[in-house]
Amino acid sequence: MIIGLSQNRRDDLIDAFRKQAAFCRKRGAAFTAAVVDAAGDELTAENKSFWTLISDFEGDPHKGALALRIAGALHALVLKKRGGALERIYAKPDVVPDAPDLRNAMAPLFENESGVFKAYVAGAPQTNEINRASVLLFGFSAIAKKTGLALDLYEAGASAGLLLCWDRFRYDFGDFQWGAGETTIRSELNGGFKPALHEDINVASRCGCDLNPLDLSDPETVLRMTSFIWPEERGRHALFDQARGQVTAVNPHLEKADALSWIEARLNDRSPDQASVFYHSVFAPYLSDTDIAALSDLMDTAGRSATVAAPVAYLRFEPEDIDGTFEFFLDLKTWPGGENRRLLRAHPHGLWVEPLSDF
Question: Which among 77, 144, 276, 298 is least surrounded, fewest beta carbons within 10 Å?
Answer without folding.
Answer: 298
